[in-house]
Specification:
Helices cover 39% and strands 18% of the residues. It is built from 11 helices and 11 strands. Helix 7 (167-185) runs parallel beside helix 11 and helix 9 (227-236) crosses helix 11. The protein starts with 10 loop residues before the first strand and ends with a helix. The chain binds pyridoxal-5'-phosphate (PLP).
Length: 304
């Protein structure tokens, strides 16, 4: 719906590695039907962003943290750049939610989030939200929404509102749990790498501390060994259920290579750093000791 603000033929600069569905919407639908063109750029490299700006550039599409490797974008820096170039900014805040970061206060024009994830919080609804403090933009979005009919069903709206009541409690617990899980796995001999912005070893930990309240509730791990060993690891888990989605009260695990990034070629995927042995954990509200035991048991069986 945020794209309805753009003129036909507009150019968008988007964070490299945006959510797969966003990628599909940009490249498969809007490019064909509305003549939009999109360049994917590392938004932390402002020289690269400047080089990508064209006369038709109208929007910068920001996503932070990214999926699944949890790279951060410096929201204040890119929004200042965009303002200087008269470009709209829209931040996909699905992973962080307003509990962790508030892009409007960092200069963004619009925040987009899937309410199917943390806002609903129970993996039982589908919805989305656009948030802006700009009345003119709000009116345009409202007009487009009402005209196109992209509105939530009453029941989904009810579930989103009910979820919101416990967002604070759930996020506190899930983000604490995620830090405990990431810390417990970081130096495990069966693990090649842990990606979590809340760990001091994350290359953007300093940015995380200025921009986010915690490292979030998603932790990505890359195992040592082969795909077959990874599949065995997966089959031994009891708490982490295999799921495409994230953000619910129950812990979930996603095999990025075959699920969220399944439509990419192996080379494309590996160039991004997503391997057969990469797993994204959506950490739930369970007792973190149970979650850590579950992971360590599955990993130790693998190491022995
Ligand atoms: C899931 C997700 C979306 C899309 O949400 P749906 O509610 O499933 O349409 C968009 N962005 C990110 C980062 C997501 O994780």
């Amino acid at each position: 719906m945020a794209l309805e603000l753009l003129p036909a033929g507009a150019h968008i600069i988007a964070m490299c590695g945006v959510y797969g569905g966003t990628h599909r919407l940009f490249d498969k639908l809007r490019a064909r039907n509305n003549g939009l063109s999109v360049d994917y750029v590392d938004l932390n490299d402002l020289d690269a962003v400047a080089a990508a700006v064209k006369p038709s550039t109208a929007m910068v599409w920001i996503e932070t943290p990214t999926n699944p490797l949890l790279e951060l974008v410096d929201i204040a820096a890119i929004c200042q750049f965009a303002r200087e170039h008269a470009l709209l900014t829209c931040v996909d805040n699905t992973f962080a939610t307003a509990w962790n970061q508030t892009p409007l206060s960092l200069g963004a024009d619009i925040v987009m989030l899937s309410t199917s994830k943390y806002i609903g919080g129970h993996s039982d609804m589908i919805g989305g939200a656009l948030v802006t403090a700009d009345e003119t933009l709000a009116k345009k979005i409202d007009f487009a929404k009402t005209t196109v009919g992209a509105i939530a069903s009453p029941f989904d709206a009810y579930l989103a509102l009910r979820g919101l009541k416990t967002l604070d409690l759930r996020m506190q617990r899930q983000c604490d749990n995620a830090l405990n899980v990431a810390t417990a796995l970081e130096n495990h001999p069966a693990i090649e790498a842990v990606f979590y912005p809340g760990l001091p070893s994350h290359p953007q930990h300093a940015l995380c501390q200025t921009q986010m309240r915690s490292g979030g509730a998603v932790v990505t791990i890359q195992l040592k060994g082969t795909r077959v060993e990874s599949e065995r690891f997966l089959s031994r888990l009891r708490y982490f259920i295999l799921a495409e989605s994230l953000g619910g009260v129950e812990s979930m695990i996603n095999h990025s290579a075959s699920m969220s990034h399944g439509s990419m070629s192996e080379e494309e995927r590996e160039a991004m750093g997503v391997f057969d042995t990469t797993f994204r954990l959506s950490v739930g509200i369970e007792d973190s000791r149970d979650l850590i035991d579950d992971l360590l048991y599955a990993l130790d069986q693998e190491a022995s």
